[in-house]
């Protein structure tokens, strides 16, 4: 996955905050808002147990837990009639200086004239203590809480601003990965149909797979995460490597009657130098992209420069070396009755009395 801070420009307050949070508080999850959006019988003992059980295992900022402890310290029952529960909450608990900040976490709704207001909605803040497997633990934690929100008799939802990015990213990254695999299979199938020589199709498919895995491996070593930009670059790497290696392979396999070394040299002279010029111009055009102070642009630069490097390595080094001792064969096509046969070309000029009529070339 990708860090949400990678979406903003570098050297900004967002990135500074993210790095500080990861340095000092990386073992804690984001602050999760636990929102009870419907009126609930908070005075009921079973509802209190359920809400405390949901928040169990978290670092909590909970008005309900503080209020129940407040009642217990004064030897009052936590299970009271609704009017008594709400009256003590409004006129005693929330007016204490140490609990006054909880007033922002509770919304009261008027009932009838002379009746105590009802708690229409409230919120609790939760922070999870995690280990180095933070992403996996957060995923399990969120899935558990979301399942509870669908089955619990207390209607609640959980939210953090980063959830918008995480949910969107979960759907956005799976689709390009799946489409990238489909693009590889489609390109391999298409190359097997349009290329006349079967061995060209085989070599081209192996080259594309090798370039794809090479770019992916160097991305990992360079610290490039698998985000939306890098996945799209992996798809574009297929077409770029096919453009570089395809003409070289076709030029080599089309030759007959000479040694492998000579045909490799001829293929490099005809197609290798243009491919090298293309790759040099392509790399030079990417240099200004490196100076942009943006994580996504840096990711784009790294992926594209790795694509150019892997394509050049395969086109100018790996393929010429392997083709010197691996199929296809370069032997002359021998047919019965044609050994020792030579072709003679004769040009016969036919004249009439006035002008040259024609020149006939016969074999």
From TrEMBL:
SUPFAM superfamilies: Multidrug efflux transporter AcrB transmembrane domain. InterPro entries: Patched_domain-protein. The keyword Iron-sulfur does not apply. Signal peptide: none annotated. It comes from Goodea atripinnis. The chain crosses the membrane at residues 177-196, 202-224, 303-326. Keywords: Membrane, Transmembrane, Transmembrane helix. This is Patched domain containing 1. It comes from the Eukaryota. Coiled coil: none annotated.
């Amino acid at each position: 996955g990708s860090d949400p801070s990678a979406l903003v420009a570098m050297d900004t307050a967002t990135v500074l905050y993210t790095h500080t949070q990861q340095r000092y508080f990386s073992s804690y999850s984001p602050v999760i808002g636990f929102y009870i959006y419907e009126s609930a019988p908070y005075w009921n003992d079973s509802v209190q147990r359920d809400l405390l059980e949901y928040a169990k295992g978290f670092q909590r900022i909970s008005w309900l837990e503080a209020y129940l402890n407040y009642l217990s310290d004064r030897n009052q029952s936590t299970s009271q009639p609704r009017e008594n529960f709400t009256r003590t909450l409004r006129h005693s608990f929330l007016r204490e200086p140490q609990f006054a900040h909880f007033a922002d976490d509770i919304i009261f709704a008027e009932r009838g004239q002379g009746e105590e207001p009802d708690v229409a909605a409230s919120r609790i803040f939760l922070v999870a203590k995690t280990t180095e497997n933070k992403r996996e633990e957060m995923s399990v934690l969120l899935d558990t809480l979301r399942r509870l929100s669908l089955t619990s008799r207390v209607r609640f939802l959980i939210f953090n601003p980063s959830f918008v990015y995480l949910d969107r990213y979960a759907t956005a990254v799976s689709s390009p990965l799946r489409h990238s695999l489909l693009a590889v299979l489609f390109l391999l199938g298409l190359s097997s149909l349009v290329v006349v020589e079967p061995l060209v199709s085989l070599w081209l498919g192996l080259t594309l797979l090798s370039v794809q895995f090479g770019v992916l491996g160097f991305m990992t070593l360079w610290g490039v995460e698998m985000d939306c930009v890098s996945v799209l670059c992996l798809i574009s790497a297929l077409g770029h490597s096919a453009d570089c290696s395809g003409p070289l392979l076709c030029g080599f396999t089309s030759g007959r009657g000479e040694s492998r070394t000579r045909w490799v040299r001829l293929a490099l002279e005809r197609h290798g130098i243009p491919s090298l010029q293309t790759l040099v111009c392509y790399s030079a055009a990417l240099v200004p992209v490196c100076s942009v102070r943006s994580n996504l642009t840096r990711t784009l630069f790294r992926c594209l420069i790795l694509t150019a490097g892997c394509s050049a390595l395969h086109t100018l080094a790996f393929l010429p070396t392997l083709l010197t001792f691996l199929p296809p064969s370069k032997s002359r096509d021998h047919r019965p009755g044609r050994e020792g046969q030579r072709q003679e070309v004769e040009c016969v000029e036919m004249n009439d009395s006035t002008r040259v009529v024609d020149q006939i070339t016969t074999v």
